[in-house]
Amino acid sequence: ASCLKFTGGTYAVAYLMGNYYDSKATYEKLFDWTDEHKFKTGKYSYKEAVIDELATASPSEYLTKISIQVF
To answer: Model's pTM, two decimal places?
Structure first.
């Protein structure tokens, strides 16, 4: 087991509907948005399952929150 502490601050957030592992396009859109709005990004991103296999049997219904710290 491990423990992760989120740092305070402002985060750009995007949601991915569908398979948790198919996140490349969502990350690209999120980074495009941060570039367009002249944000610098932190070193880490965070993926949080909002709706996963415990809530639905269909991967197309999974919902994942992706957060990146911005400055």
So the answer is: 0.88
